[in-house]
Structure formats: structure tokens, C-alpha cells
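Researcher: Re-running this chain for the archive, since the previous output was lost when a drive failed. Same request as before.
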Amino acid sequence: MGPDTREKPLQRLDRIVKELKIQPGSVVLDAGTGTGVLLPLLKEAVGPTGKIVALDFAEEMLLRAREKNGEEKISYVPGDLTATPFDNGTFDEIACNSCFPHIKDKAAAAREMIRILKPGGRATVCHTSSREELNSMHRSIGGVVGNDMLPGDDEMQALFQQAGFASIVITDTAEGYTLTARKPSSAPANRTTPPA
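Model: Regenerated C-alpha cells:
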């Protein structure tokens, strides 16, 4: 057997972020930032005029992320993706790396993401392994993450469609998993939006 040419997880993440082609100057939410693995990649993507908000419900994780990544262009906010403290239409992009399986109410998270995205904004759910590999790893670890599964394509599509997203694209390969979904630029003409 030849040398292992598979990308390492950080290389895969770097490729995923580059493929997103995040616009310089974007305001990005790193949802479930954990220790902030994605932050340096997002910082590079948004350039000197962009901003990043790192969100995690575990204060300890936010502290570790802050220690590793500093304060420049990044604010750290404790919170839950199903009920964030942000105003409607705050973000151009939401990156949800390696945390979606751990969210209990996935439909509420999808609805919250569309609420806090700007019109035309994009939500991305990504992992550095395939859905099958990820779910079998969670099952084998057991305990608190034993039932934390990334739903199948049809269920993910339905979750994001029901929340109001469009242009939902799922890529699931041995090199990683991504779902991207866009908030429509404007509400369809035949639908009236009730006041909030």
C-alpha cells in the first residue's frame, strides 16, 4: 500500500472554507465554535474588514477559543443556536462545523439560522468526515454523544426547506460532509410575512 494521501482534518476544513468563497468584509457566525478550530480560517476568509462572532453554550470552550485566537475581528458570545441573542438579519454567513449532530432541536436551529441571516445569506453545516463515518464514530463513543446523529439527506433537506431555506446542496464524501443553504433574497410575492 502506498502512502496515505488523504487530507488531514485541518486541511479538509481549510479546503471546505476556501470552497465556500466567503466574501471579504462578511459578518460570519461560527456556531458551536468549540475551541475555535475554524476561527483562523474564517478570519483569513473575511479579510481585514470582516467580523466573526464565535458562539458556544460552553463558556469554557469560548475561553479556550479566545486564548487561541485573540480578540481581533472576533467576538465571543455564550449561547445556544436554537435561541441566539442576535437581531434578525445580522449575518452574511453561518458556519456550523462539527456541532449540528449535538443540537437536540435541529428544526429550531434551522429556523434560528434563517432568522439571523441577512437576505441572500448562507448557512453551512460541515464535518471533516462523511455522515456515515461521523455517525458510526458517535455510536462507538456512546455516552452523551451516542445518539447525536447527523440526519440523512432527505431529513436535512426537509429541515432546512421547512425553515424557509432555498438552494440546499449536500455533499457527502469520504473527505467530508457539507450542507449549504441560502436564505432567499426576498420573500415570494404571493406570501405575506406576518409581523414579528
